[in-house]
Amino acid sequence: MVAGVGVGAFALLVGIALTTGDDGSPAAIRLVWPDPPDGIELLDADDVTLVDDGPGVSQGLLFGAGTDDDPFADGDLLLATFDGGEIEDLDGLGDPITVRGHAGAAVAPQGPNVPASIIWAENESLSVMLASRSYDTLQLIDIAESLTFDGHLASLADTDGLDLLVDNDLLAFGSYSVGAKRSIVSYGRTDDESTSVTVRAAPGDPSGLLGARYFAGGGEPVTVRGEQGWLVADDEDAGFGFDGNAVVWLADGVIFTVRTTGDLDPAALAEQLEGIDDKAWRKLVDEFGQP
Fold first, then answer.
1. What average pLDDT does range 281-288 have in this prediction?
2. Rg of the Cα trace of the chain?
3. Is 207 exposed, middle or buried (0-12, 13-18, 19+ CB in 10 A)?
4. Confidence (pLDDT) at 283
5. Residue 252, Cβ neighbours under 10 Å: how many?
6. Looking at residues 224-241, what average pLDDT do you find?
7. pLDDT category, 175, cuts 50, 70, 90?
């Protein structure tokens, strides 16, 4: 059964080329803010490992056409397939539609950056989703009619000039692959929840960075700690990956995200971060980690 699978389920879906820690589990480099200003303090430090408690994703394809500064300027298309052909609460996902002779749901774009999407059960063991910022739901239904299937893998008969930019079957550019460990460090003012900083790190690769940029709803190219990254400005319609201002970048096989709310500049703050060794990290997790 596929439960609650919709566009919102794909926040920051990024391709992961897993690295491995000493215990055999995927590991991430950690960055912390060593000297926050007065009034801002460390609130949380945790390692989070994704467990397989949702639908398995067989395939994730992300197509686009554009420039280096905006790889999706001239078009985009997401295709994902899921194990399981029974979609829970289909009516609650969007407007009812028929796709390839099957019941499905369509979600209209919400603001200029949130994609239009359709989802349907292709058969008793497979569900499919298409999403795009450049095609509307009717066009997505037409595209769906051209799909061919080989088991749980789908193919497009015509990409309409779009290039395949990400092809990842771990978790449809898996937000984080099952078993992947990501670190999360949070800072804020205890008396003012409008100001906060969250630093996340998880194993990743260049396609993962591209996926993160896509699902953040856009972004401007920026250099972060000497690496290519993306700056995402605060906008209530800016997508479903970030809440606030953020930068995301790739370094040493790890995708880092710094998200800020309030007056803090995430790009400037990223330059202040420092690496932390395992012993110091464990001390932080023991003291500040959530039970």
1. 91
2. 19
3. buried
4. 92
5. 10
6. 70
7. very low
